Q: What sequence folds into this?
């Protein structure tokens, strides 16, 4: 057997593995040009890139990202820590991050918090891998874990939440202002009694939306006794169950229901109509928050505050400084971005 080939032995099949040097030789370019051809955004003439890609196709060459990371100490992987995916908003968030990072030549490493798993535990699992940055969309994170990441030169950006009194922030929708917008919509439509279906009791996202909604109602002279609240677990089933819990009290249904997330509002709507025969908005007004595509479907036509997801994702990625790996990890500023009121069929829109 000839063992003097440029390629290296593939132990599984005894064949030879093509290297970037082989591609460079066939294309008549340097090895660094081959590397640039497979790096999105790199400076290389299109004609040269096409010549390299054609040589790679002929040799069945695929870049080895693991080998590259050993040389550059950069994996081009960004970890995303998610909570429950029962809320479709975060499914769409994951998709947007994945597409945006892929355009920049990066890949996502996704961690979902299982039952009973805290964010600190998830971070410890993340640190077992060579990631370039962490995006956190769920739960709390201790200062110790933040410092551990920063000591390793790994930036951590919070997405749509912050950690109170810690100085740790990130990119988020202005949830307080959004809650106030929903309250104003109900008030202008003549509502006198209200109900909130809440999400994660420890999450700043849910807390801020509740606070904005409640504060605006109190400012308008609404009594606290006229504002009911039930947990909805950030899920469709939780939204439906919140309606049942109120019905079990024997009290009249309120004039308006605010689902802290669209998916809970949608669960409430279906239960109100199917089990209790209520018309929306004639009998009860319903509004949500997030702006997920599902809420715009004909069965719902849900009035909501839409989060500027694409803008939030872009800002988050910018804060990671992925193209400046030598830049020191700095505290992330608080970046609240206004949401947009989307008027649909579940709340009468104000007369123009």
A:
């Amino acid at each position: 057997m000839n063992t003097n080939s440029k390629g290296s032995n593939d132990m599984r099949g005894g064949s030879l593995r093509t290297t970037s040097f082989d591609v460079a030789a066939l294309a008549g370019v340097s090895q660094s040009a081959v590397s640039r051809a497979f790096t999105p955004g790199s400076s290389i003439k299109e004609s040269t890139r096409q010549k390299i890609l054609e040589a790679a196709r002929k040799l069945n060459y695929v870049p080895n990202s693991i080998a590259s990371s050993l040389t550059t100490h950069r994996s081009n992987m960004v970890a995303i820590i998610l909570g429950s995916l029962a809320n479709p908003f975060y499914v769409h968030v994951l998709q947007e991050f994945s597409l945006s990072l892929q355009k920049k030549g990066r890949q996502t490493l996704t961690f979902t918090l299982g039952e009973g798993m805290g964010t600190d535990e998830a971070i410890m699992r993340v640190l077992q891998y060579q990631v370039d940055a962490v995006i956190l969309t769920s739960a709390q994170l201790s200062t110790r874990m933040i410092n551990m990441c920063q000591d390793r030169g790994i930036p951590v950006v919070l997405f749509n939440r912050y950690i109170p009194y810690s100085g740790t922030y990130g990119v988020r929708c202005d949830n307080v202002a959004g809650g106030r917008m929903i309250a104003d919509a109900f008030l202008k439509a003549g509502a006198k009694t209200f109900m909130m279906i809440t999400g994660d009791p420890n999450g700043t996202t849910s807390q801020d939306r509740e606070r904005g909604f409640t504060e605006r109602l109190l400012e308008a002279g609404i009594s606290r006794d006229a504002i009911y609240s039930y947990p909805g677990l950030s899920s469709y089933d939780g939204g439906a169950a919140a309606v049942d819990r109120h019905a079990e009290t024997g009290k009249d249904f309120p004039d308006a229901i605010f689902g802290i997330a669209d998916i809970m509002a949608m669960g409430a709507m279906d239960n109100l109509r199917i089990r209790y025969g209520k018309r929306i908005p004639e009998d009860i007004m319903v509004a949500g928050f997030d702006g997920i595509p599902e809420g715009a479907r004909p069965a719902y036509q849900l009035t909501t505050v839409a989060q500027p997801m694409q803008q939030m994702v872009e800002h988050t990625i910018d804060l990671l400084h992925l193209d400046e790996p030598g830049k020191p990890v700095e505290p992330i500023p608080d970046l609240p971005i206004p949401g947009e009121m989307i008027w649909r069929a579940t709340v009468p829109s104000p007369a123009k």
Remarks:
- The CA atoms of residues 110 and 303 lie 31 Å apart.
- DSSP finds twelve helices and 14 strands in the chain.
- Residues 1-15, 66-72 have pLDDT under 50 and may be disordered.
- Residues 8-63 form a domain with the 434 Repressor (Amino-terminal Domain) fold (CATH 1.10.260.40).
